[in-house]
Each structure stands twice: as C-alpha cells, then as structure tokens.
UniProtKB/TrEMBL annotation:
Residues of the signal peptide: none
EC numbers for this chain: 1.8.4.11
Gene: msrA
Protein name as catalogued: Peptide methionine sulfoxide reductase MsrA
Record-linked HAMAP family: MsrA
Length: 171
C-alpha cells in the first residue's frame, strides 16, 4: 500500500471521487501543511493554523497507480484558483498535491506540466506541489460526509460538479 495526500477545497467533496475507486483502501478527511498540532475544524477555519483541508488516500499501486489518482484529482479541482475552491475561500481550501517521496513529486510535476500544456485551461495552473507533512484526521462527523449527509453534500458539491462538467465532460 502507498499513501497520498491531496487538498482541493472542502474535504467533504474530495472523498467520494477516490473512495469508490478499485484499489483504494481508505480515504480519510483531515488537515495538513500547517504549524498547529492536532488542529480542530474551528481552528483550521479561523485561518490561523496554516493547514489545508485534505484527504489522505491509502491505495494499492498494483491496482490503481499514483498517476491515475493524479488524473482523478485534477478533475475534482479548479487548478487555476490558488485562493480556494468554488464557494470555499481561503488558504485552508487551496489546491495542493502533497508528495511522499521523490517519485511522487516527479509524477505530480509531470502531471501538472501535462495539464498546463493541454490547453484545457486558459489561466495558469497554480496548484502547488509540496512535501507531505503530518496529517491530522478530522473529527469523526467529517468522515464519509457524502454518505452520512447526502443532501448537504449535493448542495456543497453543486458548483464543483458544474465546473467539472464544463471542463471535463459529464461526471
């Protein structure tokens, strides 16, 4: 098994696209990239911890490659928006690919360059690629949010879904 961490706005919206992939063992909502140990949701939302909302994905690379997961990631985010995602604004919602090792860094950089060269977006790709830091699981009520609160999830996911359909086709 390998681990990867993605930040792409509200973590509620980032679990489902990965959770249902063959080869994915677990997807956990949490916080990473900041300077506060064991932050709470309220602390992260206060923009004082430096953390992003992120998902930690444990996967079997023999079934689903890191590169395939990167392709799924790009289709879930607006890679041209450095200051949040969709209705979620602020540094805690910025898009980041956190890499675990040099191979992941190189694959993420290559994937980003490929997306930039594709012409799919008229603005620069601003998603950052940063070394993984300590990942703190979010409170239990945030885990599997899309399953526990499907109506609220759909409402929160609507603008993201519209963007995805405009740029990547129907999902």
């Amino acid at each position: 098994m390998e681990r990867m961490i993605f930040a792409g706005g509200c973590f509620w919206c980032m679990v489902q696209p990965f959770d249902q992939q063959p080869g994915v063992y677990s997807v956990l909502s949490g916080y990473t990239g900041g300077h506060t140990e064991n932050p709470t949701y309220e602390e992260v939302c206060s923009h004082t911890t430096g953390h992003t909302e992120a998902v930690e994905i444990i996967f079997d690379p023999a079934v689903l490659s890191y590169e395939e997961l990167l392709n799924i990631y790009w289709q879930q985010t607006d890679p041209t928006d450095a200051f949040g995602q969709f209705q979620d604004r602020g540094d805690n919602y910025r898009p980041v690919i956190y890499y675990e090792n040099e191979a992941q860094r190189q694959a993420a950089e290559a994937s980003k360059a490929q997306l930039a060269a594709s012409g799919r977006f008229s603005q620069p790709i601003v998603t950052t690629i940063e070394p993984a830091q300590t990942f703190y699981p979010a409170e239990e009520y945030h885990q599997d949010y899309y399953r526990k609160h499907p109506e609220n999830y759909a409402r929160n996911h609507a603008r993201r879904e519209q963007f995805m359909n405009e740029h990547w086709g129907e999902h």
